[in-house]
Amino acid sequence: MTAFAALFFDCDGVLVDSEPITHRVLQRCLRELGWDLSLTECEFLFMGRAVKDQKARIAQETGVEIGQAWLQDFRHHRDEALRSELQAIEHACDVVKTLHAHYPNRLACVSGADRGKVEMQLDLVGLTACFEGRIFSGHEVAKTKPAPDVYWAALQALEVPAQQCVAIEDTPSGVQAASSAGLAVWAYLARGQEHGVCTVENLRAAGAQKVFGSMAEVTAWCL
Fold it and tell me: What is the DSSP string of 185-205?
C-alpha cells in the first residue's frame, strides 16, 4: 500500500537545475533594459515567480513596459541556454522513476513556468513518460505561484484529495502555493546551497513540513 494518493513535483530546482541558467539569461536581458542586477539580486527578486508577473517592477526600474515580444525574446534565449546546459538535480531522475512504478498515473509535475519550458526540460532529462498527461503550468490558470490555482487544477484533474497528497517544492512561493491548496509540502534545499529567498527559515515560514538536502531521501518517505 502506498503512502499518498498522489505526489506532486515542482520542476525548476526540484527535478532540473535550471534556476542558475534562467537567472543568468534574465540578468542579461534586464541589463539590456538598463537594470543592472547582480545574479544574487536577480535570484532574490525573481526566484519562484513568473517574469510576466513582474512587469510593474521591471517598468519601475527601467521605465520600459515589457510586452509579449520582449517576453518571447527572453524565453527564446533562456530555452537556447537550457537546451545546451541543463542537468537533472542529483538523484531526481532515479527518485521519479522509482516512484512512478509505485504510483502509476499519480505523479504530477506542477510548475509555475510556461508549459513549453516545463515539457522541454522534462524531455531533456528523460522524465516525460513519468508525467505524461499530468503536467500543469501556472501560466494556464488565473494566477500562478504563490497562488494555489495550479495545484487546484492538478488536484481536480487527478481527482485526489489535497490532504492525502504531498508536494515537493524548493522556493517559498512554491511552498506557499502548495500549502494554500491544502497539500503537505516538503522543501528541497541542497546542502550548502541557501541563496536568495531560499533559506530554511523562509521555506518553513511558507509552510514546509520538511526541509531536506538530498532528493534521494524522498523515495523512502513515499513508499
Answer: EEEE--TT--BTTB-HHHHHH
User: What is the CATH topology of the domain spanning 19-85?
Assistant: DNA polymerase; domain 1 (1.10.150)
Under CATH, domain 6-17+87-222 is a member of which superfamily?
HAD superfamily/HAD-like (3.40.50.1000)
Neighbours of 95 (CB within 10 A): 23
- Backbone φ/ψ region at 63: left (φ over 0), alpha (ψ -120 to 50), beta: left
| Secondary structure letter of residue 114 according to DSSP | -
Q: DSSP readout, 155-173?
A: HHHHT--GGGEEEEE-SHH
Judged on CB neighbours under 10 Å (0-12, 13-18, 19+), 84 is exposed
Predicted confidence (pLDDT) per residue in 72-104, tens digit: 999 999 999 999 999 999 999 999 999 999 999
Whole-model pTM? 0.94
